[in-house]
Design a protein that fits this description.
Radius of gyration: 23 Å
Strand content: 5-15%
Structural class: alpha+beta
Largest sheet: 4 strands, antiparallel
Number of strands: 6
Number of helices: 8
Order of helices and strands: HHEEHHHHHEEEEH
Oligomer: single chain
Strand order of the largest sheet: 3-4-5-6
Helix content: 40-55%
Length: 220
Amino acid sequence: MAGRLICETCTTRLRRDLQVTPLLMRWLNEHVTPGQGGGDRVSGSQEAGTPARLDVLSMLQEGATPIHGDDDEQIGPPSIPSTLRNWAWLIAEHRGLIYPQAASVAELSAWLLRHLDWVTGQPWVDDMIGEVGALRRWAHGLAPWAVHVQELVGPCRSCGKRALVRVAGERYIECDAREQVGGCGALWTEEEYEEHVAELVGRRRQSRKVGAKTKRGVAG
């Protein structure tokens, strides 16, 4: 796309991270009360209040103040609603649109996705990628976070490494770019992955047919 300031992989990553925010909200809502995991707790009343996790509440509540350390560096998770609202407000201001003030996280996610093509050409797109991506990383890092990660057998279409993983509930398959794995970070839809696997299977079958014909020719 003309005028885009980021690559296709970064665009897909931003799309993925926006799409998953409603799922993060639903999951975190189920884990406000601590189970086996850690996290600071606060009681709802002095009598028999149910302890709640401050780190989870920080992500769920709009306007929640992130936890900062002694050097003022943010060490606690950001608010999902506030992060999306801030970016929606900026886009609305730049494009002369009505700011979706009363929108839910699911509605904000859909609203931001509708403007994604325009966002990719803005000088602050890297900041948006960082902030929206941080929501997913923080949510995945909060305990308990029983995310099911499936390792796929097929190689990545971009780098060829067998480092593809699928996170439960997410649409995209990712080439794991962690240092110990060594993937490229590319993202693929289920359809693209299945097409790639079908192509590889087709090549293998064709190679076997050629090999079989060669053997028969030698034997004759």
